[in-house]
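From the thread on structure requests for the teaching lab: each student submitted one protein with a one-line request. Submission from student K.M.:

"Model F-box associated beta-propeller type 3 domain-containing protein from Acorus calamus, tokens only."
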Amino acid sequence: MGSRNNNEVQSDLCEDVVAEILTRHDARFLRQSMRLVCRPWHRIIAEPWFARAHLKRARPRIIDKSWTYSNRNINDSCDGLLLLIIPAYPDPDYYEILNPITGLRVKLPETTPGHGWGFATPESSILATSSSTGVYKVVHTANTPDDKFFLEIITVGGGGGGWRDISGPCAGFRDVSWVRNDGFLHAISRRGFQTHLHSHMYMLSLDVDKETFHEMRLPPCCEKENYHFLDSWGRRALLADQLSMTEFDIWMSMDDEGIEWTKVYSFNADLRFGGLWSVVSVSAVLGSDDLKRLVLHVEVVEGDGEMGVVWVLCEGDESS
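Reply posted by the TA:
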């Protein structure tokens, strides 16, 4: 065995076995060794799916490092990677991807000029990954002074030709805040300014892999009530809390275009508290696949200004 060269030894091992062995090594060691290993091993380490397999095996730990970045620089995180906004005055600010374990940084090009307010801002970007390829992408939204909405995307590490406009100019959406969900990004936004009398609420969906963008109008109930996007189920679902703040409905989109919404369950929650109080926010953090049980995370402000957190277990009834 000792007389055989490395090429002969590695040929006895299938790619799956080699990948399984390599995922057990420290990320810093793999990065430093990439230029020293044979080509088949280098190809495995460089694949996006290997990075995700390595991440699943890695154990969380405290990073003993000193960084010069403040919390204001950190805009988003995904799979341990950080999306940073780097001030560059008088030049435009720009995005940078940082791996805090290896220290590897990737500077992204400036966002597309000519989109009005299309510079790097904390409220307008998110780091996402393709569910099929594992490739990371940054999504950036921009609004122009004439109330146009642009959505552009870039692949981290190159490929695709820089920033790509995937929405085209459409009537402006405001205050877009994305939520990741299994290779998709979803957001809820009102078309136009909040003061528009005839504006409506929409759910925006972006397929990160295919880079396709869709907009769907929300059900009528969400025009007047509070609503929350549920990302714990694979389908598009909304939790709407009525003005009483004790009755909750779950609506689901029955088609890809979001034309038909159906109320599938209703919940009652006992949110009675002593003294004066008001509910700040309600979000669903846990539920079963059949939607018959739901745990709500409720933030409450009492009359004296004290903030409290309440966990409420709801039993649901099927809606006709």
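TA comment: Residues 34 and 46 are 8 Å apart (CA to CA). The mean pLDDT is 69.
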